[in-house]
Amino acid sequence: MGNNKRLFIETYGCQMNVYDSEVVISILEKDGYTPCNGLEDAGLILVNTCSIRENAEQRVWGRLDRFLQEKKKRDVRVGVLGCMAERLKRELLSHPAVDIVAGPDTYRELPAMLRRLDESGEKQAETTLSLKETYADIEPVRTDKNGVTSFISIMRGCNNMCTYCIVPYVRGGERSRDPQSIVREAERLYRDGYKEVNLLGQNVDSYLWKNPDNPTETVNFSQLLELVALVAPDMRVRFSTSHPKDMSNGVLYSMAMYPNICTHIHLPVQSGSDRMLEKMNRKYTVAGYLERIEKIREIVPDAAVTTDIIAGFCSETEDDHQATLELMRKVRFDSAFMFQYSQRPGTKAARHFPDDVPTEIKTRRLNEIIELQSAISLERNTECIGNTYEVLIEGTSKRDDNSLFGRTSGNKVCVFPSLGHKPGEYVNIKVESCTSATLLGHII
Ligand code: 5AD
Ligand code: SF4
């Protein structure tokens, strides 16, 4: 059992899962584990999972079969963490590869679960959801590659109950983390050389911390943003995800006031049809969404706006779909994440609305959405040609060793020939050309 305490962790799903994996590494390091680079070297393989769409789960089942091969060769323990662990505890426990199942609020239990497993040889599972756990006191062990940009989880869970979404069931109710612990984490990252922090929450606009000792003392999201922006003027602050029903003008004013709060808002719209929005329980209308966009452009004129769109939600008609395309043309998002609706067992949509848009139609609509968005993204990027942007360098371009890449404040990736600058430095880039995904330019 020489490598018993060598840990390999694989992460699927959102940035919040990446953050959670860093929390898990920190918890296990305190228990004597050390991370290793390949699963062949590991005494403990963990997989942090996502349940948002069916294909996210399919991928993990495939990985479990791969871990089983490893298990047949040698003594290795396998644990499943995250959203799928919460949703499919029993099914996962019946997979021959799996020894441990731990839901998103149970990571502090992992060392004890592993000990019980080693002592008894019996599979261990913990999936209790908490109303309090925010892992506020745990210093995550950073796994990012660049040492320049990092994430801070500011809240956990979700109370929105969008009818299609599994998140409230697998991540529990919303809770906000102590702002002082967030600021301390940002300060620590800055001391370690990081130049950008990304504040993460399912709905950051509903961040609200109440002092447990004095409930009249509260901190809301725009106040938190300012606290983090004040950590260092040369450390950028980003955040996601915003919710159209909750995004306040206060956040926009903070963004306008602090040059280091990046001018990018990720504001998922999901659909351009009021009937679909109502059925999704999004609690805003197309008109309400457009009013938010107008406010963004009034208060922060150069802000980039990105979105999420779902194609083929229950009972979506051709007219509903056209309304989504119409909204996309009106808003002209800088970029978008676009998905086909995937029914998730246990959600309100799965219980009450038939998943009645045939797969071919979902796929065709999604393709139309993707095609339109890539034309709009190209137009948006073309509008940047000739302009100069401050870019934070993140590393060497994947395609060309002599080029560097970084992002503008609006989160656009920018590639340019290296003049010997290092990751973590800011440079001004004049944009000369572009694709729908990247700006190309040179340092001035
Ligand atoms: N099917 C397809 N997409 C979904 N999303 C959430 N739930 C589903 C689902 N059941 C998308 C939404 C959300 C993003 C994170 O994932 O667009 O904003
Ligand atoms: Fe993240 Fe949602 Fe996937 Fe969970 S289900 S990992 S919260 S995207």
Q: What overall geometry do the principal axes of the alpha carbons give?
A: globular
Low-confidence stretches: none
Query: What is bound: which ligands?
Result: 5'-deoxyadenosine, iron/sulfur cluster
Query: What's the mean pLDDT score?
Result: 96
Total number of helical segments? 14
- Helicity level: 25-40%
Strand order of the largest sheet: 2-1-3-4-5-6
The separation of the N and C termini measures 56 Å
Provide the β-strand percentage band. 15-25%
How would you characterize the overall build of this protein?
- Helix 8 runs parallel beside helix 9 (249-257) and helix 12 (318-331) runs parallel beside helix 14 (359-382).
- The chain has 14 helices and 21 strands.
- The relative contact order is 0.08.
- The chain has helices at 15-29, 54-73, 83-87, 89-93, 110-120, 167-171, 179-191, 221-229, 249-257, 274-279, 286-299, 318-331, 348-352, 359-382, and strands at 6-11, 34-35, 44-49, 77-82, 100-102, 124-126, 149-153, 155-156, 175-176, 196-200, 208-211, 214-220, 236-240, 264-266, 304-311, 335-340, 388-396, 403-407, 413-417, 426-434, 438-443.
- Helices cover 35% and strands 24% of the residues.
- By secondary structure, the protein is α/β, with parallel strands linked by helices.
- It has a six-stranded parallel beta sheet, sandwiched between helices.
- The model has no long low-confidence stretch (mean pLDDT 96).
- The longest helix has 24 residues, at 359-382.
- It binds 5'-deoxyadenosine and iron/sulfur cluster.
- Residues 52-53, 164-165, 268, 270, 308, 310, 339, 341-342, 344 line the site of 5'-deoxyadenosine (5AD).
